[in-house]
Amino acid sequence: xxxxxxxxxxxxxxxxxxxxxxxxxxxxxxxxxxxxxxxxxxxxxxxxxxxxxxxxxxxxxxxxxxxxxxxxxxxxxxxxxxxxxxxxxxxxxxxxxxxxxxxxxxxxxxxxxxxxxxxxxxxxxxxxxxxxxxxxxxxxxxxxxxxxxxxxxxxxxxxxxxxxxxxxxxxxxxxxxxxxxxxxxxxxxxxxxxxxxxxxxxxxxxxxxxxxxxxxxxxxxxxxxxxxxxxxxxxxxxxxxxxxxxxxxxxxxxxxxxxxxxxxxxxxxxxxxxxxxxxxxxxxxxxxxxxxxxxxxxxxxxxxxxxxxxxxxxxxxxxxxxxxxxxxxxxxxxxxxxxxxxxxxxxxxxxxxxxxxxxxxxxxxxxxxxxxxxxxxxxxxxxxxxxxxxxxxxxxxxxxxxxxxxxxxxxxxxxxxxxxxxxxxxxxxxxxxxxxxxxxxxxxxxxxxxxxxxxxxxxxxxxxxxxxxxxxxxxxxxxxxxxxxxxxxxxxxxxxxxxxxxxxxxxxxxxxxxxxxxxxxxxxxxxxxxxxxxxxxxxxxxxxxxxxxxxxxxxxxxxxxxxxxxxxxxxxxxxxxxxxxxxxxxxxxxxxxxxxxxxxxxxxxxxxxxxxxxxxxxxxxxxxxxxxxxxxxxxxxxxxxxxxxxxxxxxxxxxxxxxxxxxxxxxxxxxxxxxxxxxxxxxxxxxxxxxxxxxxxxxxxxxxxxxxxxxxxxxxxxxxxxxxx
Length: 725
Ligand code: ADP
Ligand code: MG
Description:
With 725 residues, the chain is an alpha+beta fold. It contains 22 helices and 19 strands. 49% of the residues lie in helices and 13% in strands. Adenosine-5'-diphosphate (ADP) binds next to strand 9, strand 11 and strand 14.
């Protein structure tokens, strides 16, 4: 019998790098060439139209309908000049990916005539029949219509022959059905709350925004090996597989050089990024073998997030060209690190002031401490909700595993900021914040090192890193809008509470800056329990976190309750980001997705064990039995026993694993068949019963992998999947 696995391994190992296609090392020559950016607008739009668009993007002014026709006309000419034939509204349903429905520019009229049509109306609004996108009951099928509406703050772009227009996706009655709508609303809310507070600080004309710099981790696996693993193809993670004897113990991958095949993939990926105006900046190996990272320069949160979604889909096609499959799952392999997507988040003004950056004067530093204290208070008060925003079926495998942040939110500030706050608690007046320290190495030819005033604690889930917070619990496959919307919303709400308290102090006779200082001190005092600078991966921290009242729930379905708690509903209503109905529908969708993912995993594992593993184990067992029989026949009943000890042992072990796996699969199948809903109760069954069963069955299969002849094992093994040659 042919073993496809050996053929695939041989083929994978023999593959040569496919040379990347970037025409030049000067990215400036093609950066943003597939984007309807300012350069393209200058060529295709008149000055008034351009000004209107810029105002919309920068100041959030609503775009006049009559302008939309002008924009559409220019955009169409640009797209046709670029070779496009179709256009689509590009949106972000709650499934986590992106969705699009292509329409042709062609507008056939009469017998032999067709024109290219694209109007302001088509640019601004579409009504895709997206009844199969999840809506959590917000859209009944008889009223299946959802609307997509143009988001002018994210520029249109071309992929292949299609003009893609970034849009929000809402129901017939105006409820958000996507990730983009609440992100935009939360940005407006935090921007307004920030502007109001800055006005109190004597800075009345600032416009604020939220910013995001994501770091995308991913695995690459050879396509031929990937195709032989139904679990990877259907669930993006290995449901079975014995760990490789060498994985990441030597820490040699992180600092190692990038394999040549992967390097060409990365170059091509960056080329595609640059054409789309995605500001890719760093690339490197990650800790696990086969794991890598790409990070761009940060941008306004909405644009940064569109770019991340775009990257995730571009990655898949570029990888295919290089004979790879990309795994964005948070934990594709047991026993090695999972993948996250650290979200670097900050609030800043359009004039360039980072509100989470320490300054030079007392006034600037008070502003800094004020925004820090408010952020910490917001996260402290809503730590369960923030965690819920990153809790998914796939990310729950990573959170709490030994290399990733635990399923508890805490914040690390670094020594300087921590000391400044502690000082503030004791003092009545403004405190000093230590600046960068010079550090001489004592080697004459090496200049003095400037050491950052934030040290690093890699185990913290929400760490301050100098001018921003880095939220590390976000999963690699996530749409960052989920957590960023929560961060913006809870900060907006907290800033409003803070401002009201400061105004009260002022009314009572306090001078404004004194009132801000005093309120900052009290805000920090009330939330300092969120700060933790020890080892966030340790068991002691889990125990300690409980005593501090932090949310330690690790069951995904139970975490989802946070979305509809009284506190969350009131908070989202106060700042106008999501209504109660919208929050409820989101929770329903998340629970539904959780159930679906686990049901697919269970069915995939059941098929794998029944059709792939057990037949091979039985075949091998028969070979052993034949051997024992032959030994007995040739050497006689008394001599054979000694000779066949290990074979008989093996046969028994194999039998035990087969029997256990088979009976557990039967129980699993029956359980899955008995679950008829995809609601909270069903999700709890999946979490409490199905997940442990998957782990239990895996143990027997992984044991069989070690017992059965390597020549016969049908699925590529960890050692073959993880190392790229
Ligand atoms: P590290 O791996 O050390 O955390 P990276 O360079 O991989 O750092 O990623 C840091 C990310 O943080 C980048 O996307 C960077 O642009 C972003 N970033 C830097 N400053 C800010 C800021 N003020 N607000 C948001 N993101 C920021
Ligand atoms: Mg980082």
